[in-house]
Amino acid sequence: MQWGKTWLDQKLNRGNLDDQLCASICREFTEVHGVQFFDTAEGYGGGTSEERLKDVLIPGEKQSHGAPHVIGTKFLPTLARWTHGSFARALRGSCQRLGVDAIDIYFIHTPIHPLPLEHWVRAACVETKAGRIREIGISNCNAQQVRRACAEAQKHGLRIAANQIMFNLLCFQSPELQETLRACRENQVQIIAYAPIGQGLLTEALTDEKFSKIRLARMTRLVMDELQDLRSVIKSLADKYGKSMAQICLNWTICHGAIPLVGTRSMQQAQDTAGCLGWRLSAEDVAELDRNALKRSTLSKPRWKRVIFVTFITLLVFGYQVNHWVDWLQSKWRAISPWQRRQADCTVETAMYVCCLALFLQAAVATATPFVTRAELKVVPGTVDIVDFSTAHSRLYIFMSSVRWVSAAALYLGVCIICAHLWRDTDQPVWVILVMHLGTYFFIVHFCLFLCVSLRQLSNVNMMDAIRTLTTAKDTVSICPMLAVLFIECWVAANDIRTPAGLPGVPQGFAQDYMFVATWAMLMQLIVCLVNGFVYTLPKDTNSKVMRFCGNSLRGGLTAISIVFYLTLVTVYASILVVLVSRYTNTSRAATGSGAWFA
Ligand SMILES: NC(=O)c1ccc[n+]([C@@H]2O[C@H](COP(=O)([O-])OP(=O)(O)OC[C@H]3O[C@@H](n4cnc5c(N)ncnc54)[C@H](OP(=O)(O)O)[C@@H]3O)[C@@H](O)[C@H]2O)c1
């Protein structure tokens, strides 16, 4: 039962089933049809499939027509696991999720681990002797691996009860499968057949679209045409017996002495699947199906494929772990009480104080550094405010730079906390959104410039192109704080006005529009600045203060980039003018926020 519940399952398994449907399917199998064996794995849905099985097979009611349920689950040998301890931990986890003290049959999911299979069989034997496993199973093992696993178990006086492999009409003729069946027979290992209906490839419901989505078809490089003969034989037998194609395939599996495992996804499929019980195909019909079977086995994987597979599985498990953490964090966040929310607000307030203090410390250290370290300062050619220090007291200089770094880190951390708080609340007044945007542009540019300047001072990296580009960007965004002040002031002034309904006013609709226009134009200007700096070669003219738009990008006439820059510049100032005019012309009737120019 690959009934995982996470978003990863949603992606990998054509959508998740809901709890109620899973419970009904289980009840249908156990109570109506007396099905006993349920298969799951810690790898299915990162353990959520096991949890689900525990929920649907209620303890105490674990009876199918008087016989106890048998639950099989699997150990996944990922690259994060190397010891018997990790095997024992995985087993404990499965027991916990299934709500049992011992697992009826515990499979080693797949022999892909770099350590030999015997290592894991030994671990399983230890746990069996300790009573936490009733029977040991292996899965996806070929003939050689079956023999090795059985030999190892025998050394401990135990046996391998079953081998869970792909067993269906798509692979029956493959020599690897035939050899594996022989090895299992010799060692009395029961075959448990997964994908008995080829993940839907051998049912009436198959369509071209569905075919392209079935993993097994991709894994075995099957093309639709190769299936046609086999499908028509199954279909004719289905008509002969008055059964569905799925029932024919499942009955064929049973006739070969294997136990079929079906991935059921609906009540209708459950009822259909159960219809494979209580009757038998004739020996001739089984033989006809055998003759028409294909040879698409998945049992012989070359070493490189196993390496890719184990890496993929390990990453998948890691993905499930991340998914677990995210779910856990989300549940904690949802459970946060109003009191804790107040604590969060306190954090924001503290962050504001930290920002102020860090700013003060940074300014103080930056001013004191040249005096304390007796540094010689040299303005970097081509800039006005970038200075290189040369000092004999290099240790002291590094110490003071570190203090500056720590205070800068505190400042930007504070900024991030405040931003996160503001962005989290989507129901913000317009002015908060605008201020947030402007603040973000301003801080990102200053932070990047700070990084580049510090790197230049602490190492031998030149970085002048980046510094000049960012200095120009800094000049561009220097207007952002004043723009934010203008917007806030406009809002405060509008708030003093009462609307006809007696409510506090807001700026006119068109004024709000132009606040947005100015903000977006600022962003555009900033992007143009960065593109100009990083895409075009910078002027080598060291006399120029900073890299300007009259650099190389303008050489030879107006370039597209400078046109955009000046257009956005004009847009910013035109918008400011509109906002200023609106601020002095706002009236009680206009202060409702109506009259937007852009819908
Ligand atoms: N040990 C391993 O490495 C391993 C690997 C794979 C699977 N398994 C086990 O084997 C089980 C079954 O394997 P599987 O799900 O891959 O393949 P499967 O049982 O051959 O195919 C399942 C798919 O067939 C369709 N289906 C199910 N019952 C049907 C019915 N009565 N009539 C028509 N279509 C039906 C459903 O697809 P639609 O809903 O799309 O029609 C379902 O998703 C798994 O649940 C898992 O427990 C083990």
Question: Notable features of this structure?
Answer:
599 residues; alpha/beta; TIM Barrel; two-stranded antiparallel sheet; binds NADP nicotinamide-adenine-dinucleotide phosphate
Task: Write up what this structure looks like.
The protein has 599 residues and is an alpha/beta fold. Among the domains are: 1-166 and 308-334, NADP-dependent oxidoreductase domain (TIM Barrel); 200-293, no CATH class; 479-599. The protein is built from 21 helices and eleven strands. It has helices at residues 7-12, 19-32, 48-56, 84-98, 117-129, 143-155, 175-186, 208-213, 215-219, 224-241, 245-255, 267-274, 283-292, 303-334, 338-372, 394-424, 430-458, 464-477, 480-496, 509-535, 560-585, and strands at 37-39, 63-64, 67-68, 70-75, 103-108, 133-139, 160-166, 190-194, 259-260, 376-379, 387-390. Mean pLDDT is 85; it is low at 542-554. Bound molecules: NADP nicotinamide-adenine-dinucleotide phosphate. NADP nicotinamide-adenine-dinucleotide phosphate (NAP) binds at residues 1-2, 39, 110, 139-140, 164, 194-200, 203, 205, 246, 261-265, 269, 272-273. Pfam families: Aldo_ket_red (PF00248).
